[in-house]
Amino acid sequence: MKGLLTIGLLIFSNIFMTLAWYGHLKFGEMKGFQKLGIFAIIMISWGIAFFEYIFQVPANRIGFREYGGPFSLIQLKVLQEVITLVIFTLFTLLVFKNETFKWNHFAGFICLVLAVYFIFKK
């Protein structure tokens, strides 16, 4: 149960992280945002990132073995990285229509999935 809760919280955390880190690149297409300076964009992104932490911190505490969770620290980090890439890829393909998913991206993701396999192997 703690493992699934950790993964769910990491997914939500990464949705907010992706919006904070890359969502502002689409602000130029939104009415009223074109005239904002970099400081305003940073503040908006920082506000979005706050919600990332609301999910990320509990995910790590619930999932970490030393707090009764099922994952080592290394397992948590690798899991988070793969979730980040999945969320980022979906976001990129849905929001940035000019981006494409190529064979080398797929090959790289396979390597990351293999990394998860080896990290979790006993």
From TrEMBL:
Protein name, entry field: DMT family protein
InterPro entries: DUF486
PANTHER family, per the entry: DMT FAMILY PROTEIN
Top-level taxonomic group: Bacteria
Statement: the UniProt record of this protein carries the keyword Chaperone: no
Keywords: Membrane, Transmembrane, Transmembrane helix
Positions of transmembrane segments: 36-55, 76-96, 102-120
